[in-house]
Design goal:
about 120 residues, about 0% strand
């Protein structure tokens, strides 16, 4: 604001920067209401409120995405633990080889071999 207000052509500079800012925010997909924004100098409170809302929205979306990723990782980890338990049960109760157990449990042969060596110790 200080730059605009100190410029001898402040009205023109204000219009150019306002237009650029509106276009840039629209390209970014910002869902803020800038239709009524005509001057950064005159409408700075409205702009500040819209930008604050945009930042809050972005933070919220980021938090929600992080939680979703965490849930997905948790599910995958739980599924892997179940697969390992199935493999342990098959190792303990059958004479199947590691290849067969890996296919049934959905693990790699190396994982089954590791589980087998853990059980023996």
């Amino acid at each position: 604001m200080a730059i605009i207000q100190s410029d001898p052509n402040k009205d023109r500079t204000d219009r150019i920067i306002t237009r650029w800012l509106k276009r840039h925010l629209q390209r970014l997909g910002a869902e803020v209401h800038l239709d009524q924004l005509n001057s950064l100098v005159e409408d700075r409170d409205m702009l500040a409120e819209n930008l604050e809302n945009l930042v809050k929205k972005e933070r919220l979306e980021g938090m929600l995405a992080g939680r979703q990723e965490g849930r997905q990782e948790g599910r995958q980890e739980g599924e892997h633990m179940k697969a390992e338990q199935i493999a342990r049960n098959l190792i303990n109760r059958t004479e199947m080889d590691d290849q067969m157990i890996a296919e049934i449990a959905g693990l790699t042969v190396d994982e089954v071999s590791r589980l087998r060596s853990e059980i023996k110790h």
